[in-house]
Amino acid sequence: MADMNCNVAVVSMHDHLDGDLSREEIKQLQEHLSGCPSCYARYEALERTDALVKASPKEKASDQLSERIMKSLPSSRRPAAWTSWVRRHPAVSAAAIFMIVMLSSFVSMWNQGQELSVTGPDLDHVIIEGKKVIVPAGQKVSGDLTVVNGDVQVLGDLEGNLTVIDGRLIPLASTAHIAGEIKTIDRAVDWLWYKVSSFFGTLTYGS
């Protein structure tokens, strides 16, 4: 079994925190984290952030965050206006702190290289040209195919799911056939938006 690439590991961290990994995928991620200090530190930071958001009681958390925001604000000639606004919008204040914490984790994630990564059980029939991954016409690729930081062009058959992370899927040719799901992921947008949307949904449900 091939070692997990750091780029793929970062996506797996997010899926693991969301409870979307299988036992085998969790085992692969744990093996990678045990041998990669950089990914391990990143995972710990994401795990702490997730735990903080999930564990905080909603109403008390909003009041506490409001107080902490007020204490961190610089001196102003009209402090009463700021206090009034924050108290009227506790959910927005909480979301602002949440986004700052999330963005800090992305800074370290984007500091790693943007090299192309191609993973799957059947790569013998896949052609790689620079940062372009091609499934040639007349060829059949078995199993799932995951491409990170590259463009994907499918001309033949893919008997599995196709996942494109931080890349582009070139419109499928008339000869192309993909048996499974097609998923494109922009980690800096889709994942952050998903987390923020989930956070607001939790606040709404608890109100």
UniProtKB/TrEMBL annotation:
InterPro entries: Anti_sigma_zinc_sf, Znf_put. It comes from the Bacteria. Residues 6-39 form the Putative zinc-finger domain. Belongs to the zinc-associated anti-sigma factor (ZAS) superfamily. Anti-sigma-W factor family. This is Anti-sigma-W factor RsiW. It comes from Cohnella abietis. The lineage of its organism: Bacteria, Bacillati, Bacillota, Bacilli, Bacillales.
